[in-house]
Structure formats: structure tokens, C-alpha cells
Amino acid sequence: MLSGWFVAALSTAYVLVLFAVARFGDARADAGRSIISANVYALSLAVYCTSWTFYGSVGRATSGGLSFLTIYIGPTLMLMFVGVIIKMIRISKAYRITSIADFIASRYGKSQLLAGLVTVIAVIGVVPYIALQLKAVSASLDVLFQYSDDKFLPWWLDSTLLIAAVLALFTILFGTRHLDATERHEGMVAAVAFESVVKLVAFMAVGLFVTYGMFGGFSDLFQRAAESPELARLLQLDSSRAGTWTAMILLSGLAIIFLPRQFQIIVVENVDESHLKRAVWLFPLYLLLINIFVLPLALGGLLHFQGQNLNPDTFVLTLPMARGAEALALLVFIGGLSAATGMVIVETIALSTMVCNDLVMPWLLRSTWLQVEKRQDLSGLLIGIRRVAIAVILLLGYIYFRAAGEAYALVGIGLISFAAVAQFAPAMFGGMYWKQGTRAGAVAGLLAGFGIWLYTLLLPSFAKSGWITSGFVEQGLFGISWMKAQALFGLSGMDEISHCLWWSLLANIGCYVGVSLNSRPDAVEAGQAERFVDVFRHAQRETDSRLWRGNASVDALVGLLERFLGPARARQQLGVYAQSRGAKDWHGLPADADFVHFAEAELAGAIGSASARVMVASVAQEEDLGLDEVLDILDEATQVRAYSRDLEAKQQELEAATADLRQANDRLRELDRMKDDFISTVTHELRTPLTSIRALSEMLHEDPRLELEARTRFLGIIVSEAERLTRLINQILDMAKMESGRAEWTTGEVDIGEVVRESMATLGQLFREKGVELAGDIPDSCPAVLADRDRLTQVMINLLSNAVKFVPGGNGRVGVRVGWDEKVVRVEVSDNGPGLTAEECVVIFEKFRQGGNTMTDKPQGTGLGLPISRQIVEYFGGNLWVESQPGAGANFIFTVPLPAPEE
Amino acid sequence: MKRASPVRQRFAALGLLGVPLLTYPLLSLPGGSLAGIPATYLYLFGVWAGLIALATWVAERRGK
């Protein structure tokens, strides 16, 4: 049996667990070991799922079927455009932005007016939403006790106030630990992530219980629903509501980043950009899981409580209660409590920051009565203001909840809130991607959108609740029919949310763009536009320091920091900053533009960018840069960036070209050296036969009495030396032609076996004269190769004549073998001569290098035969090499590739 | 200039793929029921789960 005390004890225990989790998170953060991992971050995003999801989705499904899913599909799609979110995070980190109001204000010239306007819209749009959460908790308590006989204890009558008070305490404890609002509240985030898990588990549990415990699973439920015509309607989508479907996806997609609590969690509490990568899929997965059982629960409730006229928003609780599953009902209650408290905590922190920085501070700084100028340490005051703001916001929520009760203005507030924050979209997106957007445009757009939202959505919801007359909804304002609040200009056939979204965004975007194009930004705005839009491009320090000119004193700025941040925190931040500039101590730093920017950013973290700007301007004599000058500086910076990019590209090109040139030069030098070597070698080689010819000729010339026999011998030598000379010159010419690529080749199909046999026949006489045995192992038919027949013959004759030169006379033996495989024909010429050392195996293929000892023996060839042969073989794609060992003869092998088989 | 990261571009492509798949007119295609479960219900959750699976693959695969 559920007693009031038991539920109270359970709720208290749950809240204590929450405090413990938050305390643990903060303790770990203080110790420098953050527990905010990618998973925790992704789960904390699920603060999106409030009690409106937990209880309300089932209610929506009982009337609209599957259309409740749009609220979760929109965020799934929006998160995929992760670049937008990363840009928001990057900008916020760089300029210490702490709320969506600050973001918009900072972008449009640090405008206090804009900050205030955004804050007002957010408060008006969101406070009723907080009230809805309190109502959900209160309603769930009512359901729990509806089944119990226990009389409530007197204070239970206002259990909701108690819960609001506990939430205020929690938020104050964990949400205002630091003054600097850019400091993350890791304990709070951890608690929210924990709550996300609790509500998912609770919802899945009741879903499984109803689907499989009370009914026979999905198909049973769906089939029983299909039998009733009324329920069958819920199973089908209504294509006539296609426009609404798309509008809801757009609306919820915008809400996921622009609701103050979502901005707080996604942007301000983000520890590491890379966590987003996990959130992109984990958060949608969470949404999917929490929605699987919504339709089955709705159908189950409708089937089970047929005709009982029960509020479908409470099905999640009443279904298990009806079956007496009290433990499950308690789990569901705790789940609902999680959903409500998580939302309230984060939303309140976000709103209190906005209220404090963007509404109260500007007023405080201007008012003379508080003597703010004179007070030394304002940090305590600031924290106090935030705490009061938290309490007041919760109190407002509570009052609204009490005042509205069951009114439509409360029940329908979920989507009405979404539509309110959707008004931030043009100013936000325009601010991040369009430099031309101006403050005047943003103000005009926001006012127009907010006005239409008020007229077409919020006020009609009041009228529906009976708080104001509904004449403007039914007949139009002053009876003018095109002014009907929910059929503006006669546009009907849409539901009220789509209707409002369509008109408000049209007016908002129209005014924003139109006014922006027709107004000139001031100097600060132009600078901020550049910084926001180009945040990814570069470190801004350079341009920043040129955009500020004036005089400031370090003492005045430090004084300012100490007043707003508190002395301890100010010193700590100054120390960090001094280190980043490479100075030991901040005392020695100059009060230059960079320092002023540092001070302003620090202040912005504490009191918002608009107030920070005012405060810095109050202690520094700033020179007013005109718009033209600012634009010049920005253009220059852009140009300099473009030039430096160009220069970098050019430099790389130049370096590459230089490297190429150097390589080419090296190659040329090498060739030049080779040519010189070649010429000197050739000259040397030519001189040897010439010298002997000349010497013998002189002897013949000077000694006419020489005997005939000697003359004949001398003349024989002269003839043979002249022949050698001719051969040498022919080969040099041949070589030169080949190397220069001017040699003539007549390529045709050649039977290598025939070439080898012919060459052997040609040199047969030579072998026989020297008494050398020549044996051939040549198959009768060899495959044809593509080559020049005469050239191959030249190679073959060169190899054979080399062999005969080096084998000993009498018992020399030279063998020729021809073989082939799939790719090449292989010809081997082996001898039993003296053989070659490993070194000689290489050098004999160089020009003018010969086998044998050239110093003592008479050269036996020109030294060009083998290099030429190798060039010929390589020209046809083959190889020529020698395998040999000293004393074991030599084996010259060359290959010629077979033509590729035709496919 | 820094080029947009390929992972971000893949996510954005997934988002652009999801928009037509999860809105009309494609949504009006599935009709009837499969094993007692309405085809629309299966289609919506199926496409949704598919997008999440693809996003998981893009986000979590190692290296390039």
C-alpha cells in the first residue's frame, strides 16, 4: 500500500542520490579528473526529454497517432549538421559566451538592448514550461494517491512547492558554484545524465510491462487496436497533415539547439568538441528507445480504460497501478520526477544567468542608488543575484502552475515554448554565417517574430483558458476578419503551431534580412560580425589588437577584474594569461589592446559581453574608430590573409620548381662528366693503334733497306691496326647513334634459333682455326620475337667472338643453348675460359673495359662490343648479363621478351 | 583555409538524406501491416534506426 510517507521517503532518497552524484561530479572536477566523458555528455543532452515527453507523449499519441515522433526526429536530423553546433561552441569558447542571449547580443555589437530582448522572450516562453514540469510532478502524485486510502498529511497538499524548493536548493548549490558562468557545472551535468538514464529505464520498463505483461506483444496490441475504427486511425498517418509534420520537424530541430537549457548543455557545458561525435548518434538512439513504447502505451491505455474517460497523459502511471504493480508505478513516478527535475534545474540555471547578466546587471550598473561604482568586491553580489534569480524563476513557475491549473495555457505550452525559441533562429544562423546582418535587423526580426508569436499563439492560449476574451481569435481583432489570431490573412487549414511558425518566421526573417540590408552596422558590430563568421579561419589576436586603440592602465583593468571576479579568481586568471604571453608576472605586462581584450573576455564570462564592454569602456580612454576605418582594417586583414595564402602557395611551387631544376642540373653535370670521360677514353683508345701504325710507317719510311720479309710483316700489322681503328670508329659511331636515339632499327619477327645457327656458321671457320669446339643445343623451331635481325646477329657474333678469344686454343669448348618460357627467349653462350671475378662481371659491360689484364696483354678487342650488345638487347626489352667464377669459365646470357599474347 | 572535415560532411550528408526519407511525400508510401505491426510504424522506426546506425559508423570507425 502506498503511503504518503513512503512516497515522500522515496522521493527524498532519490533527491539525495542526485545530490550525491552532483557532489561526486564536482569533487572529481575539482580534482582535475573530469567525469564528463562523451557518453555522459550525450546522455545529458537528453534533458530535452522532459516530463512532457515522459507523460505527455502518450497523451499526444492518443489523439495524433504517430505525429508525436516529429518532436524527436527533428533533433535527430539537426544534430547531423554538427558543423553548425561546433561553430557555436567555438565562438562561445573564444568569446566566453554563457547564454543564448549573450551570443546574440555579442554578435550584434555587444548590445544590451538585444540581450535584454532575447532574455525577455526566453523567460516569457520558458517559465510556463517550467510550470508544466511542476504540474506533471503534482499530477503524478495525485495518481499515486488516487488508489490509496491514506489521507495526505497536511503539508502534502503542497508537495509541489516543496519540490520546487528542493530544486531551487539543488540548482543554487550546483548551478552557481562559480561566478564565471563559462565555468562548467560538471556535477550538475553528471546529475542530469544520471537522471536521463533513470527516466529511460523507467519508461522502457513500463513499456515492456504493458506491451508484454498486459497484452501479448506488439502485434497483439496493434491488431486489437486495428479492430476498433477509432483506434485504427491512430495507426495510420494522415497525409492531409503533411505540412504540420514538416513544420514540427523544423520546430523541434530548432528547439534542440535554441532552448536555453539545450544551449546550456550543448554549448556552455561542452568539455571537448570531440564529444559531439558521440552525441550525434547516441542521443538520437536515446530518443528512439524512449519512443518505441509510446504508441503501444497509448493504445494499451485506450483499450484498457475504454469508456472511463481517464486523462491519457497519466496512462504511464495508471496502467501499472490498474494492475497493482505498485513497485513499477513507483519506478515510473521516479522516472517522471527525473524528467521534470532535470529540465527544471538546467533551464533555471540558463535563465538565471541570462536574467542576471542581461537584465539585472545593465540596470544595476546604470543605477546610482546602489553605488555600484564605489563597491569594491561585486562578485558576492553577482552570485547573490543569480541565486535570487533562480529562486524567483522557480517561484514564478510555481505561481503560474497554481494559477493555470488545468488550463490549456499550461497543457499546450510545450510546443508554444518551442515556437518562442524558434524566433532566435534567424538572428543566430544569420549571425554565424552572414556578415551583413546588423543589430537593427536582428532587433526588428526578433520583435516581429515575437509579436506574431504572442498574437497567434500565446494570447489565443490564454483565450482558450478563458483568461481573456476570445474575440480576437474568433472574429479577429476589432472584428476585422483577416486579423483572426489563428487564421491570419485568412490562412487556414493549418494547426495553430504551424500557422504561428509560418507567419512568425516569415516576418522574422523578412524583417531581419530587409532591415539588415538597409542599415549600416557600427564599428563594434562590423568587428564582431567578422569574428563570429570567420571564427574557424585564424587566430584573431592580430586583427583584434588593431581594432582597439586607446589608453588604459593595467591597474584600472585589474581593479575591474578584482571587483567583478573577486580578488582570488582575478589573480589566478591573470597568472594564466601572463603565462600565455610568456611573462612571469602580470605586473610587468603592458596595458595594450591584447590585455584589454583579455580583461573584457574575462568580464564577459562573469557579467555578459554587453555589460563587460560598458565596464571596460568606463576605465579606458578609447579612441572611437569609425566604421570605415574598422572596415578598412578588416578588409586589410582579409587581404593579408589572402595574400599570405597566395604567397605560401607560390612559395611551395617555387620550392618544387627549384628542386626539379636542381635535379636536372645534377643530371646534366653527370652527363657532362661522362662525356668528358668518354672523349678522353676514346682518344686514348684511338691513339694506341695510331701510334703503332705511325711507328711502323716511320720505320718503313726511314729505312729503305729493310728486308722484304720484315716489310711484309710491318705492313700486315699496319693493315690490321688500321682495321682495328676502323672497327673502333664504327663502333663508337654506332654507340653514339644508339645513345642519342638516332640508330635505325628495323623491327620484325625474328626466329632466334635461326639467328644463332647463322652466327655459328659465320664464325665456324674462326673456331676451327683456333681448334675450339663449338656445340649448339638449339631446338628446331623457336618462338618468334619482335626484334631487329641484324642487330641480334651482331650481339650473337660479339658473344661468340668474345668466347673464342678467351678460351684456350686446342682444348677450348664453347656451348650455345636456346630455351624459352612463357615470357622470354633465353640464349646462353658458355665457355671454359679463365672466367671472371665478381667485379669483372660488372665492369666488362662498361665502355672500353675489357676482360683480361689490359696492362700487360695486348688488347684483344675494342671494349665496346659488350656495351653495344647490352644496349641492343635492352632496346628490345631484354637483359644481358654474365654468370661466372674465376677458373670456371663464363656463361653469357641474354633474353628477349616474347610478344604479349593477344587477348 | 582549413577544409571542412570529412566526418562533418558525412554527417551533414546523412542529415540531408534523412529529411526527405522522414517527411512527406515518401512517408505516405508504406501502407498495410507486417506481422500485425503497421508498416508506417516499422518504416519510421526503421529509417530512424538506419540513420543512427550510419551515424554510428561514421563517428566511431577508426582511422581515416
Q: Explain this structure to me?
A:
The complex is a heterodimer of chains A (903) and B (64). Chain A has 37 helices and nine strands. In chain A, strand 8 (879-884) and strand 9 (890-897) form a beta hairpin. Chain B is mostly helical and 64 residues long. In chain B, 59% of the residues lie in helices and 6% in strands. Chain B has helices at 6-21, 39-60; strands at 33-34, 37-38. In chain B, strand 1 (33-34) and strand 2 (37-38) form a beta hairpin. The radius of gyration of chain B is 15 Å and the shape is elongated. Chain A binds chain B through residues 66, 69, 73, 76-83, 86, 218-220, 222-223, 226, 235-237, 239, 242, 245-246, 249, 277-278, 280-281, 284-285, 288, 292, 295, 536-537, 645, and chain B through 1-2, 4, 7-8, 11-12, 14-15, 18-19, 22-25, 27-28, 31, 33, 35-38, 40-41, 44-45, 48-49, 51-52, 55-56, 59-60.
Note the total helix count of chain A.
37
Count of extended strands of chain B: 2
List low-pLDDT spans of chain B. Answer: none
Content of β-strand of chain A: 5-15%
Task: Give the structural class of chain B.
Answer: mainly alpha
Q: Residue share in helices of chain A?
A: 55-70%
> What is the C-alpha radius of gyration of chain A, as a whole number of Å?
47 Å
Whole-number average pLDDT of chain B? 84
SSE sequence of chain B, one letter per element: HEEH
For the terminal residues of chain A, how far apart are their CA atoms? 88 Å
Do you know the CATH architecture of the largest domain in chain A? Up-down Bundle
Specify Rg of chain B, calculated over alpha carbons: 15 Å
Measured by DSSP, the beta-strand proportion of chain B falls in 5-15%
State the domain count of chain A: 5
- Which topology of the largest domain in chain A does CATH recognise? Sodium/glucose cotransporter
Distance between the ends of chain B: 21 Å
| Most residues in contact, chain pair and counts | A-B, 38 and 35 residues
Largest sheet of chain A: 5 strands, mixed
Total helical segments of chain B: 2
For this structure, the quaternary state is heterodimer
